[in-house]
Amino acid sequence: MLKVLRLSMKNLLRYKRRTLLTGMLIAVGVVAVIVFVGLSGSFKRAIVGQITDAVLSHLQVHRKGYMASVDNLPLDRMLPPKAFETLSDILTRTDGVEAFSPRIKLGAMLSNYAQTTNVRLNGVDPAKEQAVVPLLASRIKEASDENTLLKKGEVLLPEVLAKGMAVKTGDTIVLVANNKDGSVNGMTFKVTGLVESLMGPGGRDGYLHIEDAAVLLRMETPEISEVAVRAKNFDQLTAVAERLRAALELITNKQNQPMFELHTWDQLTPFYNVVRMIDVMTLGIKVILIAVVLISVLNVMMMSVYERVREIGTLAAMGTRPGRIMALFVAEGFCLGLVSALSGAAIGLAVLWILNLTGVEVAFGGANQVFALAPSVAPGEVVSACLIVLGVSILASLQPAAKAARLEPVEALRHV
Amino acid sequence: MDIVLFENVSKTYRMGEVDVAALDHVSLSISQGAFTALVGPSGSGKTTALNLIGCLDRPSQGEVTVAGRAIGPMGRRESAEFRGKTLGFVFQDFNLLPVLTVYENVEYPLLMIRDVPKGEHKPAVDRVLAAVGMADQAGKYPAQLSGGQKQRVAIGRALVGKPALVLADEPTANLDGATAHKVVELMKQMRDEFGTTFVFSTHDPRIMDQAEVTFHLEDGRLIDGPAVGKEAHHA
Predict the structure, then answer these.
(1) What confidence score (pLDDT) does residue A90 get?
(2) How many angstroms separate the CA atoms of B147 and A232, rounded?
(3) Residue A38 neighbours by CB under 8 Å, 6+ apart
(4) For position B235, what pLDDT does the model report?
(5) d(Cα B106, Cα B103) in Å, to the nearest integer?
(6) Which architecture does CATH list for B2-224?
(7) Is B91 within 8 Å of A409 when comparing Cβ atoms?
(8) Chain A interface includes B14 (CB < 8 A)
(9) Can you give the pLDDT at residue B182?
């Protein structure tokens, strides 16, 4: 095998310029794949991280039917205390769950004593909420206390809404809300911070303490709108969700219908489509790489066979078996692909390294959302790009190699 | 003992609508160790006869036997193996592999065809290169050699696997008179040293006389040469 590869390398170097150009073309393809995968992967991680770590968390559990009316923030589809207790017990026992946080979601009227507007709010337990959405604190601007997210009697208002209402940190506002029976209640709150807006569901919500939310809604017994859950390992989320789903399916209501519904982050946000689009684009660029390699190697190998017909005839006349002649040409394609793939991988990784040094910032969803990307690529992606090149190189060499092996020596020796 | 036997051999090629007889009922035999020339003008059938002996082609009619094997029934792979083990080839245009050095060209049949153990390559190649007078050029590439030197290397390549029979198609056609004479002398010398049968085609009257056995072909017919089973044996 080594002798075949050695002779193939020598034959490739016979046409240095052509080999170099073809190799460069393939290498550029590999570089494009690695850099694109590195950048897009980093962008994807940034988006998903922002969505899951700042707002949604990894998955959410609601009472069955809540999500169908989520836009209305229905107060009649909350989890009663006993159901929440059962759910807490399951979440505590389920392997892979790191933390969970109950939320009361409500709509309210906000008044600064001069103007009134609508606001969507989350009643949360600050410690539990920070455990499931660790980036929430980083969204708080002009916080009155850097060390405490929220205390009872305090509210964090959406930044855009606060600016529109000319409300600043330290101001007092009034929140007025209807409970599920239609009863109205109002409470004053001190604004202790402004929450930076994010795109997507929950991205423009305010926060107040969960106990304040229960009082505002005049709940006789505290009820929960949703429970945000964070997995220990994001890569294991599917398995954790499956385990939870299996456990929750066993819990039914009086009508013998499932009590809970569970949604992972990708089912909760339309930005999952952006993630999917990135995956489709990655697939697209890999398809382009395949086409580049296929056409380049096929062209080079066909030219090679055409130019060396007499030489093939000589090899065959001397007794070189057809299989070995075929192996010689397939090995040429393999060597071309291998050297190009390795060069492309090395250059691609070097480009990613330089991008990490210089830093890449991408604005997304408005000027206030700038992602500092840290492009990196998994070893598997590099290996996969190299294997694609090698596989397609061999595939592209097969036809010309088979043609060479099929040449009749007596005809080939006559070729001018 | 006959190493080549033609029994009423004909070879016909189809050219457009017409059948052209390249060989027409030829019978001949060549004994082992003979230094044999196939002579005749262009189109007389010399190359066709060499192709048949070299298992590169099949007869349309009759039987060709080489080293005791009938070549007619051989398949592609079988004939390739037979050529690799039994035959050596010297071509008019030398046909050396340009990417290999002199040493590597001579080593090629051991490496790629006969799968001889690596340890045996160097003694065999060195011996052949010394015999053809190219030992001091072993590291050069074909492009750095003269025509005569290339043909010496080609002869070395043909002999390195110790074949029973070396076939040379117009081996001196691209050489000047003096070099051509030296190459034929070398072939004869190699026959003496290695005991290999040489069969070469030529239409060059300057080297025909150096053959010990001569078959004259014209228009595909054998017009002169020893009768089958009665040709002169190597002296």
Answers:
(1) 95
(2) 77
(3) A348, A352, A355, A375, A376, A377
(4) 37
(5) 5
(6) 3-Layer(aba) Sandwich (3.40)
(7) no
(8) no
(9) 83
